[in-house]
Each structure stands twice: as C-alpha cells, then as structure tokens.
Design brief:
The chain is an alpha+beta fold. It folds into 3 domains: 2-173, Jelly Rolls; 184-417, SGNH hydrolase (Rossmann fold, 3-Layer(aba) Sandwich); 435-518, Immunoglobulins (Immunoglobulin-like, Sandwich), CATH 2.60.40.10. It has 7 helices and 31 strands. Strands 1, 2, 5, 6, 7, 8, 9, 10, 11, 12, 13 and 14 form a 12-stranded antiparallel β-sheet that branches. α4 packs across α5 (328-350) and α6 (357-367) crosses α7. The longest helix is centred in the middle third of the chain and has 23 residues, at 328-350. The protein is elongated and about 110 Å long. Belongs to the 'GDSL' lipolytic enzyme family. Keywords: Hydrolase. It holds the Pfam family Lipase_GDSL_2.
C-alpha cells in the first residue's frame, strides 16, 4: 500500500483553471477549453492537510447546422488537484478528508471524488468533520489524478466553489487472478458487436469469433452480466471464453468516457487478451463526443494499450475493416485510411501485436468478383428482411457473410500470435449446386410477387440470383446470403421469366440451377373463352 500525507507541499499538486472560453466550431471540428496549470499556493498546506478549493463547470456546444448530434457536453474540473504517479491498474483507494466549507450547514455538503476526469464516489461532509472515504477505481492512465467537486442539483450541473481538506491518500492494487484459461475481451464498434435476430442481416465479426476458436465450432452464449449493455455477450465452450463488449457508434474517446473501457478493465486478469478495434467513429469530425484528431490518435491508442498491459493482460490492436470498394465507399475509405496507418505505425514502434484486418479483409474483398462484394456488406434489396423492407445499401457495415469471413481472419491471426488459442477452420470445399429450387407465386401488397426457396448449399457463403426473360435478357441480379429470395416484378417486364440461382464460396461458383416461372397477373382483363 502507498500512503501520502499532505501537510507539506506535494510535488504533484497543482491548480487547474480554464480562464478562456472554448474556441467552438473551427474548420468543422469543435475545440474545447484549454487548461492552464498553476502551482498550489504555499498557504494551502496546513497541519490538517491540503486545502482544496474546487468547482465543476459544465458547458454544451452550439449545434452545428442545427444537428443535435453535434452537441458536445463537457465537464471542466477547476481548482486544486493532485496527481499521484501509479501504474494503470485497478486500485482500492482510501482518502481522509476534513470538512472546511464555510457554506456548509448542519446537514453537510455533498462532494464527488473525481479520478482522471471521471466521477467515482459521492459523499457528504459536515463542517469540521474528519471522515475516511474508500472506493475502487480502474485507472486508464499512469496516475491517480484526484480532485473533489461539490454536487449541486443534477449530478453533472455547474456548481459554485466548494472547500475541503485532504489529509491523507492511500492506495493499493486490486489483485485479480483467474483459475481457468485466459479470456478474450473485445473493445470495438458496430462492425464487431453482437446483434439480435430482429436486426438481421446486420452482423459483426465479434459474434462469429467463437465459431473459429471453439473445438467443433460448438459454443453457447449469453448476456455478459459484467456489462449493462444488452448487446454484450459472453461465449463459452471448448476454447477460450470470449467477451464481446463491442458497441455501435463508439470510438476510443466515447468508449472510455462512457465508462465502458473501465468496466472491461475491471474484468481483466493477467494473460487475458484484449482485441481493440476502433477508427471508424473516431474520424467523425462533427461528433465531438467521439471525434479524435489524427495527431492525437496515437496517444489514445497508447492509453488503451498501457491500461491493458499494466494489468498483465495482452493488448492486440486491430485495424478497422475496409469500406465498400465502389462508389461513395471509396471516399469513406480514404478518410479512414489514415487512422489505420497511425495504428500500424504505433504498433510497430511500440512492439504491440497487430492484426491488420483492414489490409487482410481488403485482400479478401479484392479476390471476390467485383459484382459480388455486396455479399460482404449490409446491402439487400427491398422486402428481404422485416428490418429493411425498403432495402439498404450500406457502405460501412457488414452482413453475416462478411462477419464470418472477417472473424476467420481474426481467429487465424490470433492463433498465429498466441498458439494457445487454437484456430479451428472449417472445410473450404467448393460449393455444391443448390437443390430443391422452388418458386411460388403470391399476391403481395401491390400485386403479384414470387417467393424463391432452395436447400442451402454446403460450403456456400452466399448466392447470386439472376432473373431474365425467355430470350435471355437479364432484368436484375441480386447477391444474397440466405437460401430464399422474395421478388417484386416490375411493370414492363415479361411475366414469363427464368430465375438462375448460383451458390458461391468466396470467389468459386457452383453450377447454376434454373427454374422457369409464369408470374400470375391478378389484374389481367383478358377473358378466357375456352
């Protein structure tokens, strides 16, 4: 245990101030207030300890172009602060404080202990009361930066000045050991998270990782009770326990600011592995609660890597997945590429294990026929899924075929890094032609429609459906991932059509199967006179 008393000047104490207004929106990015650090006055130290004079200032930015998603809410902690150097670990902290606030009545005044900018404990202090407070904290930096701010009204409201005295601070590491094999944790974004069945066909590679790391691809999963997020899942089986804590819309900043990284760190034990994939949302310049300028990105990576490594666990950086390689996806990819480059450079310079998923997945996409890459992404036509009745053409997110392919890459690379995690590949045979192809005419919401169904082809991971007329003119071509297709014929097309269904395994196609269909016409006025 480390104990510090504050009756004498402490070299790591200072007064933080934010004397100038925030610069606000500059070149499309929000600039917060810049702190000034001043020395603690000598008279702040006394026989009882170090006198703290502090307040919380909360500001919200203006909305950019009237978009409420661009509002940044920032808490600034002003006044006396100490920063005790310590490895980035979990600690049990005990502080001895004395009530000295002149504004405190007989009911006392409520304060919050703030560690590294995070509210960690709330307590009430009476005038002249000496009290010991104790709480646990998960550091994400190599210091215990401690201040206290009064609570007034809402927890995150701007407050007036508050005063108390810190007599002594003690802290000792929280020791966490694990009896079973190391666990794998995932801190990442929407391209990795687990999705519910009703969200199909959107998927994340994190929900498929267990398939390639569990013997015989057999595993069970349930909600990860250590997380309050419904999407968090823990996968168990004959292999490593996998905690998928990925969550959509998060980057390095927001995943930490929302305490999600702290919760993950609190679950870690030595030798665990943490897969860290961000970079897509970090580039969102107009979302200040998650945006990280490119020149600050390496420092944020270092904060995550250090926090994992100091706990005796093993950080593995993963570059963000590539974007749709056509159309607008190219521009998005170019905007995100520099964040992957920073990740690669940081990993090389600091000898941090790296899975360059952006490069490896890009190679996988390049090996596919260009017209088939839709199978990887969240791109479906209308009426195929209840969640996307109008269809969706997403250039960032992925479907089950892409999630499974990327999980295979991550599992393979992870097994190469750490042989204790055996990579269980699946048979890579060529796909068989589809069987039992049927086509049923139905009356839909606007007229005649067709339901195609077939038996799923072994070894296939997607299908291509082409519709043509009897003369061979192709009306449309769909890339799909499930063994069924709902077609909505368009006006002007022949009612006598041929559907061709081809099973694909990545870049290898099976022999196609065809079925001829005469689409019913519910509004046909031609009388059959016999």
């Amino acid at each position: 245990m480390t104990t510090i008393t504050f009756t004498q000047p402490y070299e790591h104490a200072f007064v933080r101030d934010y004397p100038n207004e925030a610069a606000g929106w500059v070149d499309g990015a929000y600039k917060r207030r810049i702190p000034e650090l001043l020395p603690v006055p000598a008279e702040a130290y006394g026989a009882n300890g170090l006198a703290f004079t502090t307040r919380r200032l909360v500001e919200e930015s203006d909305a950019l172009n009237d978009d409420p998603n661009t509002i940044a809410r920032t808490s600034y902690f002003i006044g006396t602060t100490i920063a005790a150097p310590a490895p980035s670990k979990g600690y049990h902290i005990t502080a001895e404080v004395l009530g000295t606030d002149d504004n405190t009545d007989e009911t006392g005044r409520t304060f919050r202990a703030i560690i590294n900018g995070q509210d960690v404990a709330q307590f009430t202090l009476l005038p002249d009361q000496r009290r010991e407070i104790a709480f646990d904290v998960q550091l994400t930096r190599r210091d215990i930066e401690l201040t206290f701010v009064p609570v007034e009204g809402r927890d995150d409201a701007t407050t007036g000045w508050g005063e108390l005295t810190l007599a002594q601070l003690s802290y000792e590491p929280i020791v966490r050991n694990r009896a079973d094999r190391p666990h794998i944790f995932i801190a990442a974004d929407s391209t990795v998270q687990t999705y519910f069945a009703e969200e199909a066909p959107q998927a994340g590679w994190g929900e498929w990782l267990a398939w390639f790391l569990m013997n015989d691809h057999r595993f069970a999963y349930e909600h990860d009770v250590a997380s309050t997020v419904p999407q968090a899942r823990v996968f168990t089986g004959d292999g490593p326990t996998i905690h998928n804590r990925a969550l959509g819309g998060r980057g390095l900043r927001s995943y930490l600011d929302e305490h999600r990284f702290h919760k993950l760190l609190g679950s870690l034990a030595p030798n665990d592995v943490v897969l860290i994939q961000f970079g897509i949302n970090d580039e969102s310049k107009t979302r200040p609660m998650r945006y990280i300028p490119l020149d600050e990105y390496a420092a944020w990576l270092d904060r995550y890597v250090t926090s994992v490594a100091d706990r005796g666990a093993r950080p593995v950086l993963v570059t963000a997945i590539p974007q749709y390689p056509q159309g607008a996806g190219i521009d998005v990819g170019k905007a995100l590429d520099p964040y992957a480059d920073v990740t690669r450079t940081y990993a090389a310079e600091h000898d941090v294990p790296l899975i360059d998923l952006r490069r490896l997945a890009g190679e996988y996409l390049a090996a596919l026929p260009e017209e088939n890459v839709d199978a990887v992404f969240l791109r479906v036509s209308a009426l195929q899924y209840l969640r996307h009745l109008d269809g969706i053409k997403d250039i960032v997110h992925i479907g089950p075929a892409g999630a499974k392919a990327y999980a295979r890459i991550v599992a393979r690379e992870l097994g190469a890094l750490y042989p204790e995690f055996a990579f269980h590949d699946e048979e890579q045979g060529s796909p068989e032609p589809v069987e039992n192809l049927t086509a049923d005419g139905v009356t839909g919401i606007i007229g005649a429609e067709v339901n195609l169904r077939w038996t799923a082809s072994p070894h296939a991971n997607y299908y291509v459906v082409e519709k043509s007329n009897a003369e061979g003119r192709v009306y449309n071509r769909e890339v799909i991932v499930k063994p069924e297709f709902h077609d909505l014929p368009l006006p002007g097309q022949s009612r006598h059509v041929i559907y061709t269904v081809t099973a694909w395994r990545d870049a290898v196609a099976a022999e196609p199967r065809r079925i001829a269909v005469t689409i019913p016409a519910s509004d046909d006025i031609c009388a059959d006179l016999g």
